[in-house]
Amino acid sequence: MSLVIRYAELDDLNGLTELMYEYIVGFYKKPRPDSEKLHQLIQTLLKKQEGVQFVALLDGKLVGFATLYFTYSTMKADRYTVMNDLFVIEQLRDTEVESQLFLKCHKYTKEHQFTHMSWITAADNTRAQRFFDQVGGIRGDWVNYSIL
């Protein structure tokens, strides 16, 4: 099998959109966002100014994606990345595909001289937590909140 991890490209738009719907609606059980908004997000990430998106292709088939957003830390007075998404199709979780997507994000963060990479996962996503523990992730001291 041939695994390729690379930047998302415009030609990936339709396949990536479907994969993102599988992630948003299928995995996280959240409402399906408008496809126009999702396409705008993907196209914003293609510019690599506010973030980047990577895709995983196995034998030429799109099977996963990861998204990094760029932001700042006041405490470090510097930029860091937020890995907002790391998703592979169910049968490829806990495989080299997932590991290589994660490593691509980590490598990008280091190569572009961001201070660090952070991420969160759902409290009940114990499978992902095991993966993040195995790759050397350090659980933070902060409690995350959000508001609409």
TrEMBL record:
Sorted UniProt keywords: Acyltransferase, Transferase
InterPro entries named in the record: Acyl_CoA_acyltransferase, Diverse_Substrate_AcTransf, GNAT_dom
Example of a GO MF term: N-acetyltransferase activity
Keyword Acyltransferase: yes
Residue intervals of the N-acetyltransferase domain: 3-148
Keyword Acyltransferase: yes
Gene3D superfamilies according to UniProt: 3.40.630.30
Entry superkingdom: Bacteria
Record's protein name: GNAT family N-acetyltransferase
